[in-house]
Write a structure and sequence with these properties.
The structure is a single chain. By secondary structure, this protein is α+β, with helices and mostly antiparallel strands. The protein is built from four helices and 15 strands. The chain has helices at residues 79-88, 104-117, 172-188, 205-218; strands at residues 2-7, 12-16, 19-25, 27-30, 33-36, 41-43, 48-53, 57-63, 68-72, 93-98, 122-126, 139-145, 159-162, 193-196, 222-226. Helix 1 (79-88) packs across helix 2 (104-117) and helix 3 runs parallel beside helix 4. 40% of the residues are buried. It binds adenosine-5'-diphosphate and magnesium ion.
Length: 237
């Protein structure tokens, strides 16, 4: 399906992949990154991106298998994200914690983009070895960024640390050492801010040990914890 849509400034959409979005006129924002006419945003199958028209725009959307494109009447960037991004700005190292699928990767990218838009060089360190956003699975990836990016699709892999498994269990030392080394590397390469995304492993003793010693080793300036509003199943991290 190929559609051309007219968007008025300030309107919002959710685009589920597989899809390709291409502004023909105007500027849209995806996770805080401006996307101008002629640029492409690829949304992988099963993933979704929020889109806001920064000005009156015309976009072309190509939808493949599983695609869903719909206009919404609320801002898909939660107010809490905006506040957390404001509060975290000026911090050198930010760690993002939370369960699977709560928006850790989305917030990490949004925060990096907001800092880059303030003129900072930002780095994303991605120790989520099972659902890697930066680099291949089984490795911790690091991307140093000077330009805002709408998706993880084509992020550079500036450096990586090999862990060798898709779960941190049994590999806590390489997880902590690798994350610390990549944070230090990003800082030595001139990153003014380093944002560490983490695995969604937050329940139980192993998860507790991993997070605790990661925090001890890295000493982030800010920890952003994301929780689903309806997450009331009595479980506690
Ligand atoms: N603000 C948002 N608006 C719409 N979709 C979002 C938003 N944040 C994340 N998503 C989408 O929801 C899904 C889960 O979010 P993700 O950031 O990958 O979670 P996590 O990293 O915690 O597992 C992904 O498809 C992602 O693109
Ligand atoms: Mg993630």
């Amino acid at each position: 399906m190929l559609k051309t849509l007219e968007l008025t400034a300030g309107s919002h959409m959710l685009v589920k992949g597989l899809a390709r979005i291409r502004p023909l006129r105007g500027v849209v924002e995806v996770f805080g990154a401006p996307v101008k006419a002629g640029a492409n945003v690829v949304v992988p199958r099963g993933r979704q991106v929020p889109l806001t028209a920064a000005e009156d725009s015309q976009i072309e959307v190509y939808g493949g298998e599983g695609a869903d494109v719909r206009e919404i009447d609320y801002d898909p960037i939660p107010e809490d994200w905006r506040r957390a991004a404001e509060e975290a700005s000026g911090s050198k190292v930010v760690m993002v914690l939370g369960d699977v699928d709560v928006g850790k990767s989305g917030f990490t990218l949004y925060l990096a983009n907001m800092l880059i838009r303030k003129g900072l060089r930002a780095a994303i360190v991605d120790p989520d070895i099972g659902q890697s956003d930066v680099g291949p699975p089984c490795t911790i990836g690091m991307a140093l960024l000077d330009e805002p990016r709408p998706t993880y699709w084509d992020l550079p892999l500036t450096d990586a640390y090999f862990v060798g498994d898709k779960t941190p269990t049994g590999h806590l030392l390489p997880m902590v050492v690798g994350t610390k080394r990549l944070v230090d590397k990003a800082v030595s390469m001139g990153a003014a801010a380093v944002i560490i995304n983490t695995t969604g492993m937050v329940y139980g003793g192993v998860a507790y040990a991993l997070k605790r010693y990661k925090v001890e080793a890295i000493r982030p300036d800010v920890i952003v914890a994301i929780q689903r509003v309806q997450d009331n199943q009595g479980r506690s991290p």
